[in-house]
Amino acid sequence: MSILTDISENLQKGKAKIVKELVAQAVEEGISPEIILNEGLLAGMNVVGEKFKTNEIYVPEVLVAARAMNMGTQILKPLLAASGVTATGKVCIGTVQGDLHDIGKNLVKMMMEGKGLEVVDLGTDVSPETFVQTAIEQNCRVICCSALLTTTMSVMEEVVKKAEEAGIRDKVKIMIGGAPVSEDYCKKIGADCYTVDAASAADAAVEFCK
Amino acid sequence: MTTRERCMNILHYKDTDRIPAVHFGYWGELLVEWAEQGHISMEMAKGAVHDGSPVQAELDKIIGWDCTWHNCVYPKLGLYPAFQRKVIETLPDGSQRVLTDKGVIEKFKPGIVSIPSEDDYLLKDRKAFEEFFLPKMQYSEDRAKSEDLIRQYNGKLEYDAPIGLRVGSVLGDIRDITTVMGMSYLMYDEDEELFADIVDAYAEMQYKCVETALKTGLKFDFAHYWEDICFKSGPLLSPEVFDELCRKHYKKRNDLLHKYGIDIISLDCDGVTEKLIPTWLETGVNVLFPIEVGVWGDQFEPARKKYGKEILGVGGMDKTEFRKDKAAVDAELERLKRLFDLGGFIPCPDHRLMPGSKFELVQYYAEEIKKIRV
Question: Partner of B280 for a Cys bridge, out of A86, A193, B285, B307, CB 3.0 to 4.6 A?
């Protein structure tokens, strides 16, 4: 078994320490950081994402796999930057104003990073202005809004309005997700995309960044 | 016929005169909203409107409800003594990180009232478990004193509703104590054996509490679990892992309940519960509650089709209709009438009523559901 396959398989099992060790070993062996990222870490996260979409695995397996990927990418980040490798796109993500819940948001962030996207994490309780300002300043192609509560989901509509007011609506896609959100709600508020799970959200963001 | 008889008859497929108007309480913010609109007093809104309390009973009368399903006697089933709640850190924006009674650090921000948001947790390894948590998971007589349980029970006799016994939570409480992140890391990466030990220790303590409560001789109409282990896409964890960890504990506890003549065992689980039903039903849990139609898209009918009359339900009323208009509530009443006709099903709002629910629509629903004749 090649070390890249080994990285991918251990990542899928969520074995963070082993993944970290294997990534360091692969670097020492002279494998390029880009190949380790694409054929080891991201390949593993792709399998995780697909299995999550089809309910072959559940939230805990995704969380441990994502943690393993993070430990691997910590080693690779400086090397990737030095070799001029860039992300496949940039998105900003946050939980909307009035809402402090971030498990769903973090899950989407992890899956997006697992697709090679650069994710600007705005945290929780994020105002519509902050979403839009960040998208402008950091040149994000996608804004992702998360909400757990029926009482806070209305902020998503404000984000759409602020993006229109700022004149960036044709340059940025707005994705929404979370427990109370639906496809109908997405259409109603004029957002661009709603997905039923984190893996599908990552797929959609990649498409928007192409 | 009393409400207590009416509810229990329905769940035993016996005759009844009408549908009872059953509810599942309110979010505190809604009560304040209703007080500001002049429907109830602010004193009542900020009073003890918890499940089965005298203030709730008074509010039930104002609205027209018959009762709440959450009318239960509570042994001390959690960490005992609980952790001392304290502020760990106050940040410049006024938000605080607080150590809760469950040993979890939660985030609070001024002006934001919501479901708790976890930031960190203490139960990360065996040392923490054995030193800080295991002593709080031991059974002691203090947890289920006869006089306390009898006092609680007698206090409920004037409120005309089925009286339940809270029998704990096999995994939901552990999820609360470890958080979803901690549960995931322990189960799949760090210490699978430790996670199983935590579940076993906690379940054994709860079993003994339930046994003591049953030995009092009090006649409970039903037993009630709380789990909340599902979300929009289904279970939070694999149904196979859930079954492996929990089946033996449900079986042991439910066998005990059956021995004491309790044949109605309900379980409160938010989210889409479909994939966990086999574990519950095969071990004796037979009432789904609250069957969240509105927010999560759960449904009772598919479960009835799949499992037959063995599966019962309390809930399934889309509470989000209370934010709309009379026509929406009328349509919901029609849908519920069809569900009620299946038998073994009591309509009830599918969770606590949320801010924005219109007082007059809730009143209208409570009155109309009682008019539907069987």
Answer: B285
Q: Decide if B29 contacts B113 (C-beta within 8 A).
A: yes
Could you tell me if B187 lies within 8 Å of chain A, comparing CB atoms? yes
Regarding whether A188 and A138 lie in a shared domain, the answer is yes
Query: Do A78 and A96 share a domain, yes or no?
Result: no
Q: What confidence tens digit (pLDDT) does each residue in B320-341 have?
A: 999 999 999 999 999 999 999 9
Q: Are residues A113 and A73 in the same domain?
A: no
- Bridge-based pairing of strands B72-73 and B164-168 is parallel
CATH for the stretch B3-80+122-371: 3.20.20.210
Structure tokens at B22: 């059953």
Q: Taking CB atoms and an 8 Å cutoff, what residues of chain A touch B30?
A: none
Do A71 and A48 share a structural domain?
A: yes
Write out the residue range of the structural domain in which residue A9 sits.
Answer: 3-82
Q: How far is A151 from chain B (nearest CA, A)?
A: 7
Please tell me if residue A98 touches chain B, with a CB cutoff of 8 Å. yes
Q: How many domains does chain A have?
A: 2
Residue B110's Cβ-count burial label (10 Å; 0-12, 13-18, 19+) is exposed
8 Å CB contact of A59 and B109 = no
Cβ within 8 Å, pair B184-A60: yes
- CB atoms B233 and A197 under 8 Å: yes
Q: How confident is the model at residue B107 (pLDDT cuts 50, 70, 90)?
A: confident
Establish if A169 touches chain B: CB-CB under 8 angstroms. no
- Asked whether residue A158 falls in the same domain as residue A192, the answer is yes
Residue A145: predicted pLDDT: 97
- Write down the H helix ranges in B54-191: 54-63, 126-128, 146-156, 172-185
Average pLDDT over chain A, rounded to whole? Answer: 93
Per-residue model confidence as pLDDT tens digits over A170-195: 999 999 999 889 999 999 999 999 99
Cβ contacts (< 8 Å) between A64 and chain B: which residues? 184-185, 188-189
Q: Which pTM value belongs to this model?
A: 0.90
